[in-house]
């Protein structure tokens, strides 16, 4: 029986995809559920799995564009049964192709550094004899290991076609550069209070809720507070109009096996520390497993990206269109700072806000970062009700 594997739809309005990777070759045996290919669209990469056990015949070539619903490949389950039947017969004849040197010839091959592949054995079943080695030695000279510096060094390069997803990303980045008036403003924050709260409550929080109490919940809630104070940062341009959003859908940049994905935490203004951490954990798991959907990555109003997890000290993040601003977090570093006239060592982090100057003025951008700084440096006052007694309640412990 033959089974046609057809191209699924990656999402609404997508009619064409590109075959980015084949995990198998023509004639390979595949099993049900095995990943056999990856396809790219403008918005996402999807894995294609075998629907049954069988022998695969590839229809579409790597890099070829193919329409949703067309046949990607064929799986022949009948050939697989025949292949298993003949497998033992093939294995019985395999030893005839194996080159086995005799003890004497093996010694010569090692002493003279002669590749075994260069010798045709004349003994029984192709066995390499001493005479074979002596004859070849008189005809050919081989470089010794001591003279490897005389062997020429070959330099090569690999040319790979960009995936459809990567080409679309390139177009978006060029569009941002050419169509927006992007500026970046910076500030730095003292992370001491966040460290103290996490050190005291993180184990209790994880035991109660099953997720870590991370930095992202503090920064997400700090951004929600700042967006409510400076609503133009939570807006976008559409033609000749400005659209202000009354809700905060926060896009979180997450690195996965297929690149950087930006899923959205919906209505973050209504979520608690627990709700945000659980949602980040859910979205991160889906990104890392390759299961994130297009619907989960569209519609954000503001983005947070954390280059600090890769060791970045400072950067200028790129706006995620059609949004108008993005906050970049960075690596926490211990630095000497002046506190009330004395020098102390504090865990410091640089923050960067890139914004579209067409819609956001300097006052709003600087004010936004100052608001985030206030929340991070005094989370009890600005995020937890202003009292130590409220922390357990706010963290739902």
Account of the 3D structure:
With 397 residues, this protein is α+β, with helices and mostly antiparallel strands. It has two domains: 2-80, OB fold (Dihydrolipoamide Acetyltransferase, E2P) (Beta Barrel); 180-394, 2-Layer Sandwich (Chloramphenicol Acetyltransferase). Helix content is 32%, strand content 25%. The protein contains ten helices and 19 strands. It has helices at residues 77-93, 103-112, 130-139, 164-179, 192-209, 215-229, 273-288, 362-377, 379-383, 391-394; strands at residues 2-6, 16-22, 29-30, 35-40, 45-49, 54-58, 65-67, 71-76, 182-190, 235-238, 241-244, 250-252, 254-256, 259-261, 264-265, 302-306, 325-329, 333-339, 342-356. Strands 9, 12, 15, 16, 17, 18 and 19 form a seven-stranded mixed sheet that branches. The chain has a four-stranded antiparallel sheet with strand order 1-8-6-3. Helix 6 (215-229) crosses helix 8. It starts with a strand and ends with a helix. The relative contact order is 0.11.
């Amino acid at each position: 029986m033959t089974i046609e594997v057809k191209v699924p739809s990656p999402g609404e309005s997508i009619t064409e995809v590109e075959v980015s990777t084949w995990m198998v070759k023509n004639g390979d045996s595949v099993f049900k559920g095995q990943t056999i290919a990856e396809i790219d669209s403008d918005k996402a990469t999807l894995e294609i799995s075998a629907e049954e056990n069988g022998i695969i015949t590839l229809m579409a070539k790597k890099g070829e564009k193919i329409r949703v619903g067309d046949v990607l490949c064929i799986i022949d389950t009948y050939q697989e049964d025949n292949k298993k039947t003949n497998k033992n017969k093939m294995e019985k004849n395999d030893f005839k192709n194996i080159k086995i040197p005799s003890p004497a010839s093996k010694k010569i091959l090692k002493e003279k550094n002669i590749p075994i592949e260069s010798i045709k054995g004349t003994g029984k079943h192709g066995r390499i004899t001493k005479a074979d080695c002596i004859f070849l030695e008189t005809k050919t000279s081989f470089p010794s290991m001591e003279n490897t510096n005389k062997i020429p060094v070959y330099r090569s390069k690999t040319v790979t076609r960009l995936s459809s997803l990567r080409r679309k990303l390139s177009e978006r980045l060029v569009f941002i550069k050419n169509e927006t008036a992007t500026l970046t403003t910076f500030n730095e924050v003292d992370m001491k209070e966040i460290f103290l709260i996490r050190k005291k409550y993180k184990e209790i929080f994880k035991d109660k809720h099953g997720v870590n109490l991370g930095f992202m919940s503090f920064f997400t809630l700090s951004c929600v507070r700042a967006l409510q104070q400076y609503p133009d940062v939570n807006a976008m341009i559409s033609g000749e109009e400005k659209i202000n959003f009354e809700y905060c859908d926060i896009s979180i940049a997450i690195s996965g096996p297929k690149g950087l994905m930006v899923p959205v935490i919906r209505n973050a203004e209504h979520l608690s520390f627990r709700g945000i951490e659980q949602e980040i954990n859910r979205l991160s798991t889906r990104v890392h497993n390759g299961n994130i959907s297009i619907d989960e990555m569209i519609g954000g109003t503001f983005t947070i990206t954390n280059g600090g997890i890769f060791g970045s000290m400072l950067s200028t993040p790129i706006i995620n269109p059609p949004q108008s601003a993005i906050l970049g977090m960075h690596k926490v570093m211990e630095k000497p700072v002046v506190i009330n006239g004395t020098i102390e060592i504090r865990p410091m982090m640089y923050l960067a806000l890139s914004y579209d100057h067409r819609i956001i003025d300097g006052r709003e951008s600087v004010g936004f970062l100052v608001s985030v700084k206030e929340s991070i440096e005094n989370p009890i006052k600005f995020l937890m009700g202003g009292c130590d007694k409220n922390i357990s309640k706010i963290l739902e412990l």
